[in-house]
Structures are given as C-alpha cells and as structure tokens.
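Running this now, will post back.
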Amino acid sequence: MSPVARRLARQYALQALYQWQLSQASPSDIETQFLATQINKRTDLDYFKELIHTIPELHEELDSYMVPYLSRPLDEIDPIELAILRLSTYELAKRLDIPYRVSINEALELTKKYGSIEGFKFVNGVLDHIARQLRVHEMAGKK
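Update: finished.
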C-alpha cells in the first residue's frame, strides 16, 4: 500500500471521526457522505472504512489506554486531538503491522495540520506512553 494512500485514509478518517464524535451520526452514514463528496481516488478506501467503523466500536477500550496518561478529563480534550489519539491508539493496539513510529509520526503530522498550535506536544506525550505500554517488544528492539 502506498504511504500517500494510507496517509489520505488517516486524514479522511480523522475528519469522519471528528464528525462522529460531534454528531453521533452512524459511521455508515458518515462513510456514505465521505465517499460521495470528499474522498480522493488515491485514498486507501479499505483502511479508511476500517478506521471509521472499528474505532467507534472500540472507543471505550481505546480511551482506557489513554486515560492514565491524560492531564485532564477526556471530555475536556480538544475533539480533533481526541480523534487523533483514538486513531493512533487503535493502530498501536490493533494494527501491529504498522510500526509504532509510523503511527506516532502520522498522528503528529495530523495534529500539526488540524489540531491546536501546541497540541502535537500533548498528543506526542500521550502516544509515547501508550506505545511503551502496548509495543514493549517492538520498542526494545529499536533501541
């Protein structure tokens, strides 16, 4: 899979997850809307669909990985940064085929593009802790 196609899938999934968080619309309805109006043909559609359907299903589990490392309550986190954290936490927890450094780097790029000015520092700190928890063996091999 092309890195550009995967990056586009994450970008559109972030937007879809943000919409889901704010509207509580069904992931299927959001998918239909995105496919009709927004998705670039170079996007990894299978990955986009995986992200927007699986992350809402698993959001409580994903949130449980984050909560110990948050400096504020979950409901006080910027919705864009929360969607990015959920997306990257999903990759760290469930997509072991994606190196943890790729997941974190992609999250930081999304945060710099869509999040608050200093949001990438917050996201990086949380994801670094989650990666240490979930990817112990991978991180040990990279030192």
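Helices lie at 3-23, 27-37, 45-66, 79-94, 100-114, 119-134, 136-141. More later if anyone needs it.
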